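seq as requested:
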Amino acid sequence: MIDLKKIQNVDIDYLTHIISTDRYDEEIFKTADEIRRKYVGEEVHLRGIIEFSNYCTQHCLYCGLRAENKNLARYRMSPEEIIERAKLIAQLGIKTIVLQSGEDPYYTTEMMCEIIQQIKKLDVAITLSLGERTFEEYRIWKELGADRYLMRHETASPQLYAKLHPGDSLENRKAHLYELKRLGYETGAGFMVGLPGQTPYDLALDLVFLKELDADMIGIGPFIPNPDTPLKDATGGDLQTTLRMIALARIVVPTANIPATTALGSINPLGRQYGLKYGANVIMPNLTPNPYRPNYSLYPGKICLFERDTACVECTKHMIKSVGLIVGEGYGYRKKTESLAEPVKK
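struct tokens:
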């Protein structure tokens, strides 16, 4: 049997052990499902994503948007296009708009202010996912009504982080996440599973960090090698280990909102359904308009690139119901329930 208390208190040695084997998976998955039902219920929240720019100034070794990728057709949506797309998403009954892009300085503080102000008129929650911006920008956008900020830490191993992110450090990424938390954003972190050189201990560090941050949102997906990156020949992450990490994240941070990611569905046709059964409670349909949508190519084989918007949303709702869960109709804020676990001692 798994030692639930050791998982909840992020015992690093114990986590490393249970991550390194599939021997405990059945019990981990069952426990995660029970904890999800107890702490966040049976609702699955929809978040409509607008990937509004695939320009990026960064050089991350795993990402298809990296600045050095010359094989990518770059695009930027105008503020008017972004706002019109947000209106459509709101009309579809989705109560959260996710504004996601590469790290693109073309979108100035003022441009984002106008976009946020216009979208807030639609009676929706706004999640920003723009990478590392200035602390002052975070403050301004929060005051204008941005509700959440998603910025995955990708790996909590300082050495692995430095290898994958030339010129950047894990401590810098953590500083941004802690500032977002201090400003009152619902703050999202998360990581990839199956990175080259990643160990079970590294994955255990990810869970320790999620607990330490008290992450409001946790995005976990398999690493999928992109042919236009330096890691094109790497193996990539597997479904089972990724599901194990989603389940453990649910146990470690019981009230967090955890998506069954698009990447899960990209490596297995039932990947997102498994994610929902093993602890996830969010689905993020991609509602970027075409012709832009296929060019936000973080990794190859991405699903849902050419469906009509209404069909995509209906398909997502059907998927949620197919695993016995309920389509949420609210804003999907994190439930303010006391955690199962004891606080981490720093």
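Residues 4-327 form a domain with the TIM Barrel fold (CATH 3.20.20.70).
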